[in-house]
Design brief:
- This protein has about 140 residues and is α/β, with parallel strands linked by helices.
- The chain is built from seven helices and five strands.
- It has one domain: 5'-nuclease (Rossmann fold).
- The protein starts with 5 loop residues before the first strand and ends with a helix.
């Protein structure tokens, strides 16, 4: 792994932190801390942001959701999604189209790996797929 690896963080990792989901919270929070301190460059997809906002405001308020997203954008960059992102994702043999889009976004932002808890969902990956705990062990 490079000195400051680039990662794309899947939605489930962010939700682990924001919803304090156990037993996943600790390793996911440590990953975000590594991103916040600059040891790792983190990307998140635009559709992850909209999903997090929707779920957060549903359980709390739109104001709190805005604050969460604003804070997240202070430490992470948005992996852009363009027409060719969608076209390339359509050509992957993933069961879940959203996962295919995540994968293509990771490739397009030149990520060293994609961080998720659902490794099995990423059949035939184009780059390494890791869980937070395993990725943190490489730092």
């Amino acid at each position: 792994m490079t000195a400051n690896p680039i990662v794309l963080v899947d939605t489930n990792i962010l939700l682990d932190v924001f919803q304090k989901r156990e037993p996943f919270y600790d390793s996911s929070a440590r990953l975000l801390a590594a991103i916040e301190t600059g040891h790792v460059q983190g990307f998140v997809t635009a559709h992850s942001i909209t999903t997090i906002f929707y779920l957060f405001q549903k359980g709390r308020s739109a104001e709190e959701a805005r604050a969460v997203i604003t804070n997240l954008l202070q430490i992470m960059s948005i992996a852009p999604i363009h027409q060719n992102t969608i076209e390339q994702a359509l050509n992957l043999s993933f069961k879940d189209f959203e996962d295919a889009v995540q994968m293509i976004c990771a490739v397009q932002c030149k990520a060293d790996c994609l961080i998720t808890r659902n490794i099995k969902d990423f059949q035939h990956p184009l780059l390494p797929i890791m869980q937070p705990i395993d990725f943190l062990a490489t730092l």
